[in-house]
What we know:
This protein is of the alpha+beta class. The protein has one helix at 12-27, and strands at 32-36, 39-43, 48-56, 59-67. The strands form two sheets. Strands 1-2 form a two-stranded antiparallel sheet. It has a two-stranded antiparallel sheet with strand order 3-4. The longest helix is centred in the first third of the chain and has 16 residues, at 12-27. The termini are close together.
Amino acid sequence: MADRDVERNCSVADFVATLRRIADSLERKEAARIQVAGKRFTVPLDAALSIEHEAAGGQEELELQLRWTSAT
């Protein structure tokens, strides 16, 4: 698979809906299907979950991250 690094701005409603879909899938112990910038993929059940907070130069960032190894 080719490298990809996409960041997409979205409305509060879209952001909340995406978080809710992923959270619901995690609670049901199901893989989550998602689409970002035209690419559909599945977040597997064994994805590593992390929460990251960064602060530098007067700016702050919060990342909710799901990380996994893609099947080849």
